[in-house]
Amino acid sequence: MRKGLILPVMLVGALALTACSKSAKDESAAAGNTVVGDANSTMSNAVDDLDAASNQAFGAAQNMMDNTADAMDNATDTDSDPE
C-alpha cells in the first residue's frame, strides 16, 4: 500500500513545484535586480563621497603647501634686508 502511494505523491509534489517555479523565478529575478540596483547605488554614493573627501584633503594640503612657501619667501625676504 505504501509503495502505491509514494509515486502519486511524488508526482503531485513535482507538478506543484513546476507550477510555482515560473512565479518563483520571476520573483527571484526581481529581487536579484533590486539587490543589484541597490548595490550599484551604494557604490556610486561611496565613490562620490570618496571623491569629495579626496578633493577636500588635497585642497587642504595644497593650501598648507602654499602657506609654507609664502612663509619661506617672507623669511628669506626679511633675512636679505640690510639694516
TrEMBL record:
Highest taxon listed in the record's lineage: Bacteria
Protein keywords: Signal
Signal peptide segment: 1-24
Name under which the protein is recorded: Entericidin
